[in-house]
Structures are given as structure tokens and as C-alpha cells.
Amino acid sequence: MKNRMIENILLLVVGLALLSGGMYLQQPSMIFFPDATLDQTPAEWGFAYEDIFLDTKDGMRLHGWYIPRHGSKQALLFFHGNAGNISHRGASVEIFHRLGLNIFIFDYRGYGRSQGKPDENGLYKDARAAWRYLIDDRGFAREDIILFGRSLGGAVAVELAAEVQPGGLILESTFSSAEDVANAVFPVLSRLIFLRFDFNTAAQIGRVTCPVLVLHSPDDEIIPFHLGEKVFQAANEPKSLVKMRGDHNNGFLMSQPDYEQALGAFVSRALVCSAKVSLVLTPDGSSPATVT
Questions:
Q1: What is the pLDDT of residues 222-258, one digit of tens each?
Q2: Do residues 126 and 108 make contact, with C-beta atoms less than 8 angstroms apart?
Q3: Distance CA 66, CA 20 (A)
Q4: pTM of the complete model
Q5: How does pLDDT run across 254-290, given as a tens digit for each residue?
Q6: Which of 87, 92, 114, 151 is catalytic?
Q7: Does the active-site annotation cover 88?
Q8: Which residue of 23, 78, 199, 290 lies most exposed, with the fewest beta carbons within 10 A?
Q9: Which one of 217, 220, 255, 274 is the catalytic residue?
């Protein structure tokens, strides 16, 4: 009897180890759903654009589109979600273009025409490369750039915002951490496996000092609303929370025109606020002082 019990315990331990190992290896394919085919270009959305290729610090070549807005000195850096590619974001691009922003939307490594395979640290490196493009190549001031992240893109946007402190940060239908999502979707299984990714948005957003707008729908069937609330609660002031309507992928369209009005109001406030504050060095170049 005792030997039989020991054998059963060993089988259980081995089974759990195999399950955890298999789930560990499968996690990238459960999180990232890249599409290599570009179905449309901004020209088909009615916009002039430039094909942009840029290199990351670790040697990946990324592809994106720069969509200018005549007469505007402000830019939006667009971080899309975990599926598809930049060619599937036309409806969102149209909204931000109407709001008077130059737009740079790019594909993470492994998506669209970008090289490589997606992983968490790689996406953060991709974000830094996109930021450098707007600052170094396009000449935008830090305070004139707003970061927008939808779903998984919100975690990437927050990581970058904590480093560079842009003019504003917009997070739509995003989550507090990979662990929180796993616990919400797989409440039992998530406690039996080792998570490969962190994406701890709630922890990182505490380092962000720019204005923050969080948008989320209580009807979101993929990322529970309370995870968006957790991100909002962890953010510093000034911050705003807007409740959308509809599901995860189409909520921003189902929430019109309120959605676009909320974005427009935030963009105006954030950029006005950033325009009033700048950092200058003391005469010896040692410490920054804030002037208005």
C-alpha cells in the first residue's frame, strides 16, 4: 500500500512537471499571434505615408509607417496588440489623424515585415528604437509625443513611458500583469505552471509621471475590466479612467463618438500641460530644474 502511494505521488509530480514544461514552451504561441502579410497600406485609408525601416540595439530590422499630419508638431507612437500587424489598425489611425497628430505605427519583431521572433524583452527594445526614430530622425520633442498602447501594446508603452516620460500615455484595454491575466483566465492551471513572461504594467506605471488616460470596457471578454482598473489605480496623477462599451477588439468603434471625444480632450490637456513645463540644466550642468 505504501509503495503504491509513493508511486502515485511520483507519477503526479512527473505529470505536473511535464505539464509545466510543456506549457512553458508553448507560452510564446499562446501570447503572440503575428501575421506576416500586410493586407492594406495607409494609401488605401486615404493617407500619404512613408515606409520606415529602423534597427534595434540588438540588430533587428523593424518596419513601420510614418503618417504625417500637415501643420502638426505633435506625434503619436502607436503600440498595437498581440495579433495581426500594422495593416489591421486603419480605423484607429483614422481617429488619431482626425485628432491632428502625426502618427508612427510600427510592427514588433516577427510581425509584418519586421525581422525576428517576438518576446517580452525584444518588444521593449523595439519600443526604444521607435522612440529614437521620432526623437532623432523626426526631431520631435519628448513632450510633444504621446504613447498609445492597446491590449498587449499597453504593457510595452508603459515600459517605455517609465524610461522616457513622454507628453502623455494612453492605455486601451490593457492588463495589469501577465500573472493577473493567467489567474483570471486559468485560475487553477496558472498556479501549477511557471510563467515565462512578466509584462507587469501595474508595477511599471508607478514610474510614469506624464498624464495618463486608461480606457476599458466592462464588457471586455478577453481582458477583464478589473485589470484595467488596477492599472489606473497604480498610475500617478494626473490620470483619467474612461469606461468604453463593447468587446475587446471592437469596443473603441462601438464607443464612438464618446471614445474619440475622450481621446481628443486628453490629447489637448496633455500637450498643453507638457508645453508649460520644460527641463533646463543648471549653469554647471549638474542637476535639472523645472521651469514653467
A1: 999 999 999 999 999 999 999 999 999 999 999 999 9
A2: yes
A3: 42
A4: 0.85
A5: 999 999 999 999 999 887 765 555 443 333 333 333 2
A6: 151
A7: no
A8: 290
A9: 220
